[in-house]
Amino acid sequence: MLPLKKRIHHPIFVVPLSLFLSVSGYVMSDLFVHWQKFWLGMYLAVLLPIIISLPLALIMDRYFKKFQSQQKELEHLDTINKKLFLLISHDVRSPLASLIGTIDLVADNDLDPEEARHYFSELSSKIKNVNSFLDGLLNWARRQTQNKPLEFALYDSSDIIKLTHDLLEPTAKLKKIRITMDIGAYKIYSDKESYSFVLRNILHNAIKFTPIDGEIIIKTFVKNKQIYTTIQDSGIGITNKEIIKILDGENWHTTKGTSNENGSGFGLRTCLYYLKKNNGTLLIESKLNAGTKMIIVLPQG
């Protein structure tokens, strides 16, 4: 049964109501006027509200359905916009902080030409990485706001991993964290920017929860026609209770990093959402004070 708000402009509600009011009004008027042709008037009292109210009710119903559809679309776009603002601020902050650190280093030191060339070369490389990252992120964000489907394609997982490593390695260096890679050129079939987003967030979290002088290992392998991307850190670890909260995907779960870094809980929650959209999944293996292994599983090309 339809709720009252949805029923009030629907023909199944409007027509019987019009009919009831018309017939009731006619019968009550007959008590005072005593119509000579009572049944003729009764027929008219029944037919006229049906003839008049039915087309009006159909027009009203069509209008309200269109209005409700537009309202849902606006709410959907508003949700996406809020999500994208969080995404961009979450993902852009780390690479920009790295760029600022390098620029400050060059600006605050009296460098000889050789050192200056080294730092400017490093800065140029970082800017190219950030520019490539922003291009992909903004293109992906544009597709989300236009409500377009994800663009599934074959791509080399190692290309995305190397770009993500180059983007976040300066952040790891600030904590003296070593990142080593054991990756193959495996073909994944999914939305490339979704994979990039998930990988970036998980590596960022690994850096966040790994103490100074720690280590992070990135590996890829194939199993049962699935590509596994593992990011293992020597960080503080996660309890089983926290793992359940994270994988539930409904709660905003966040804790401070080993250097007191803040988080919003947005990243992992959104990772789970996009992995599901890409027919993938996230596995977590961890013990307190013994590190964490995050495993991204996506279909092989």
Describe the 3D structure.
Residues 87-301 form the Histidine kinase domain. This is histidine kinase. One of its GO terms (biological process) is cellular response to phosphate starvation. It catalyses: ATP + protein L-histidine = ADP + protein N-phospho-L-histidine. The strands form two sheets. The chain has a five-stranded mixed beta sheet. A hairpin with a 2-residue loop joins strand 4 (215-223) and strand 5 (226-233). The chain has helices at residues 4-7, 11-33, 38-108, 113-145, 157-174, 192-208, 240-248, 266-277, and strands at 152-156, 178-182, 187-191, 215-223, 226-233, 281-286, 292-299. The protein folds into two domains: 4-73, no CATH class; 150-301, Heat Shock Protein 90 (2-Layer Sandwich), CATH 3.30.565.10. 22% of the residues are buried. The protein contains eight helices and seven strands. The protein is of the alpha+beta class.
Jot down its keywords:
single chain; 301 residues; alpha+beta; Heat Shock Protein 90; 2 domains; 5-stranded mixed sheet; two-stranded antiparallel sheet; 8 helices; elongated
Shape descriptor reads elongated
User: How much strand content do the residues show?
Assistant: 15-25%
Helix content estimate: 55-70%
- CATH class of the largest domain equals Alpha Beta
Secondary structure tally, helices: 8
Name the helix and strand elements from N-terminus to C-terminus, one letter apiece.
HHHHEHEEHEEHHEE
